[in-house]
Design a protein that fits this description.
The strands form two sheets. The chain has a six-stranded mixed beta sheet with strand order 6-7-8-3-9-10, sandwiched between helices. Strands 2-1-4-5 form a four-stranded antiparallel beta sheet, with helices on one face. The chain is an alpha/beta fold. It folds into two domains: 11-96 and 158-264, P-loop containing nucleotide triphosphate hydrolases (Rossmann fold); 100-151, no CATH class. It starts with 10 loop residues before the first strand and ends with a helix. It is built from ten helices and ten strands. Helix content is 34%, strand content 23%. α6 runs parallel beside α7 (188-203). It binds adenosine-5'-triphosphate. Adenosine-5'-triphosphate binds at residues 20, 23, 25, 43, 45-51.
Length: 265
């Protein structure tokens, strides 16, 4: 799917504010994610990226401002509410439960029950159906180098584990997938696989917000790059119009971006 910048943003914020005492973590931040794109969010430590992502995923309730999903105002008071609306977040650390198998991980917290009375009254899990759907999703995303869906996740490599987390988000994220530093703990080869997977998810129609400190990764996969500084967007650039050093300069305040450039980007 090609990014559609003439459409209504899938996810948008206007004038979002979050204060922690005297610290303003989100300072009237605007943000837009368009259909079909990978939008990277970058910024220096403490710029407010996590706070923004938490607001978008229901983990933080903003003090002011608005969030729009498909153009409609929304508010979430918990990550569960954001998930129910199709916003799925893959956190770096809480990606998977090692002791569980792949299928169980994919359906963790959203287990399918058997049809009829076995499910509705006896709450029996539909293991076969979950395994079938898990296998299909993993195959669809090119992850079936992992042969055995009932293999414990602790026996997988870091990249494969991240793959399971990405597959889970693709399975349930109906509108948006947010990925927080998905390659941070991975080696070169594994990072490559996960980056390809991220592109695959985008190409299948789910827009992605990618938070990363890894500039080469950002510049490789992002369609646009939202640069966050001092609690708000300093600029939105693309890998075609700006270099990595431009992005770092904007991030640190060494390069000023005029209002019109910000608007045009
Ligand atoms: N729960 C909190 N209580 C108090 N201050 C907070 C809290 N969470 C974030 N902050 C402050 O808000 C500001 C933005 O933090 P945030 O974690 O959003 O930045 P970040 O860009 O994600 O940083 P990093 O890249 O280091 O993770 C920082 O000054 C931080 O100290």
């Amino acid at each position: 799917m090609v990014a559609q910048y003439d459409k209504t943003p899938v996810l948008q914020t206007k004038n979002l504010v979050k204060r922690y005492g005297s610290v303003t973590a989100i300072d009237h931040a605007d943000f837009e994610l368009y259909p079909g794109e990978i939008l990277a969010v970058i910024g220096d430590n403490g710029a407010g990226k996590s706070s923004l992502i938490k607001a978008l995923s229901g983990a933080l309730i903003p003090d002011e401002g608005e969030i729009f999903l498909d153009g409609k105002p929304v508010s979430f008071s918990s990550p569960m509410e954001a998930r129910a609306l199709g916003i799925e977040t893959v956190y770096q650390n809480l990606a998977v439960s090692p002791a569980l198998n792949i299928a169980d991980n994919l359906f963790l917290g959203r287990e399918l029950l058997k049809p009829g009375i076995l499910g509705s009254v006896f709450r029996m899990l539909d293991k076969k159906e979950m395994e079938k759907r898990a296998r299909n999703k993993m195959a669809e995303l090119g992850l079936m180098t992992i042969q055995n869906i009932s293999q414990a996740v602790e026996s997988l490599s870091g990249g494969q584990r991240q793959g399971v987390a990405v597959a889970r988000s693709a399975l349930f994220g109906s509108k948006v997938v947010i990925m927080d530093e998905p390659t941070a703990a991975l080696g070169v080869k594994e990072s490559r696989r996960v980056l390809n997977l991220i592109k695959e998810v985008r190409d299948r129609g789910l827009p992605i917000i990618l938070i990363s400190h890894n500039m080469p990764h950002v510049f490789e996969v992002a369609d646009r790059i939202h640069i966050h500084r001092l609690g708000k967007r300093a600029a939105t650039v693309t890998p075609q119009t700006h270099t990595m050093s431009d992005a770092v300069a904007i991030m640190t305040g060494a390069m000023e971006v005029s209002g019109s450039e910000e608007e045009a980007a």
